[in-house]
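Table 4 source record.
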Amino acid sequence: MRLRSQLLLISLVLLVLPVAAWQFARQVEQTLRDGHARGLLDSARAAAQVIASETADAWPAPGEVLYVHAATRPPYLDGYADDWSRWLVDEQRFTSADDLLEVSFSAVAHNEGLYLLFQVSNRDQLYSDPLRGLGDHLELELADSSGRATMVRIAPLAPGWIETRGDGPGGWPRVQGYWQPRGDGWTLELQLPDQRRPNALRFQVNDSDRNGHGLIARSAGPKARAELVHRLTELDQALHRVTPADARAWLSLDQGWVLAAADRRLAEAAGPGEENGSASWLSTLAFEALLSGRLAIGQQRRPDTARLVGPDIGTSEPTVQWHTRPGDPGIALSVSAPVSVHDRRLGHVVMSRSADDLLEESTRAATRLLLSSLLVMALIAAVLLGFATLLSERIRRLSDSAENAVGPDGRVLGLLSPPRAGDEIGDLGRSVAGLLQRLNEHQSYLRTLADKLAHELRTPLAMIRSSLDNLEHSRDPEDIARYCRRANEGSARLNRIFQAMSQAARIEDSIRGEPARPFDLSPLLKNYVAACRNTYPNRRFELELAADGPQIINGSADLFAQLLDKLVDNAVDFSPDNGRIKLKLKRHSEQLILQLENQGPPLPDGVGKTLFDSMVSRRKARTDNVHLGLGLYIARLITDYHGGTIRAFNLKDGVCVEIAVARRDH
């Protein structure tokens, strides 16, 4: 993978920036929503307390109820439910034990009386017969405010108009209506026109057995007498007083039936639906998908809604619900608080408020934050991509220059100009330039190596050849001995040449297998200098030990002696007769510094850095010894093995080779 692609992938990590910003926006939005909900919930709790203390007597007793809708126009008694459509949404259903009989009940109150609608679904319809007994029929049990109950039985002989009276005083109640058959059952529409209205009702729809002579096969209806409940003006007024501005409220029973409602929204904000906000579908979807997650669709609650449904109805604890509007964009907040008196729950205060303003502000803030984060990320990614392009171009130029500097056969065709940049690529360029420089010098040495070997080999070969030729024609024993001696000298010289050529490989192999042990450098130097005085009597050897006591280093005494051999051999070769060769051992901080000084010609300029490289020979020897540029290279290998450094520099009257190694404690 290219550097540009790698940095592009790394720049993708910047995606964490908008993600982190978005998480922050969500936390802020959640805090705003919690504050919004807490304020409305506190209002609902306060309203519940006030209503419980002021209107506890107006609430119906807990238990089963039948809800009565208020009508501005009474339905027409014809046995059809067409004019009941607005109230059928909240009809109450009752079924028999075997689920074969189903009854839907609705009730409407008007100045002209109480209207009841029964829609019955059963398989067979059987009318009453004076000879065989009752058929399908309805039994009504009604009670007035004083608690007196009366019964009314409606058992028609045929479909059509019905009029009857109850068994109460004065024939109360008077009942009239219409029985209308349907394909899957029958519909009964009744009116109680009396001014004395019942406040409790129990009905039972009986499905008679066709072969049972009036026997009842199944029944459906409330299990007990249910109180008739409806909107109460007293509760409406109390709820309106405690409802905060820009909110709507309902008082409902546990079953969800509404006893009172209040709407404190501004006139221009109120509409026929639940809300008439300014939110859009786009902002609603963004709010759900990006901030709050998927919200449930709430009930379309209006001021005239008769029954509330949802998770906030019938609970014993206060609830908070955020929901979307059915069929319309926008977000709404609904809260509920129980109305309780002496630990007896009467119902609930339900409040609702539009959250469109919060929705719009949250969406705008989140959108600005997201766009800003994406813009910053795009700018940073562009900068990184441009920087990667610049780096890749520099590396490509360096690669092309390095490839062009070396030919197909491996020869160095040209040198690189070291770059002046101070970064890692500049260091790499300078390293490549230095490597090519050393490679060029090495190749130059290899090109001259043949001449050096020819020069070194020509003399011993000539000595051997001339000695053999003379031996072939000579008969004098002294001449024969002299020619044999010269041939042996030439052979020995050839052997030294071959040894010098292979010595570097052998010393590297021996270094790899040599274990490192601590040894004292002082006695080693003393013994070595004493041996050199006997080996080279025409040189003056001196030893200077600046510190007393053991001087311990970690390594190999044998290899260190070989290191001294190479350096002393080089110093003897280039020093004059009776010249001084001095070894000095000094202690500097935690290092031991060994210096070997010899009198003689100075080093040429510019060879200090390459003098210890392989097969580099810059000085002309004044002896017959072999110099192939390997001695000082071997010295450097041994120094590296001991973890030290080696360098050479000129003195006033000669050359000094300095070795620095780490000193160990006793």
